[in-house]
Amino acid sequence: MAFFRACAALLVVLGLWLPGSARGAPAARVSAAFTPERLGAATTVTLGFRLARSGGYFHAPLTGLDFRYPANLGIITSGLGVATCDPAQLEASGAAGCPANSIMGYGTASVRVPFGNEAVPETASIVLVAGPSENGFLRLLACATGLTPVAARIVMPTLLIAGHLQISVPLVPSLPEGPDVDVVSVHVTLGGHLTYYEQVRGRTVAYHPRGVTLPTRCPHGGFRFSAAFSFLGGARAGAQTAVRCPRRR
Amino acid sequence: MRRRGKKSMAAAFGLVLGLATAGPASAAGHVLKIRDEGRLHFIKSSGSQLIDEGRSTGTIPGNVRVRFTYNGNPVVTAQFTIYGRYGTINGRAHGRLSNPTSTSPSLRGSLSITGGSRRYAHVSGSGELFGVFYRRSYGLTVQAIATLRY
Question: How far is A108 from chain B (nearest CA, A)?
Answer without folding.
Answer: 25
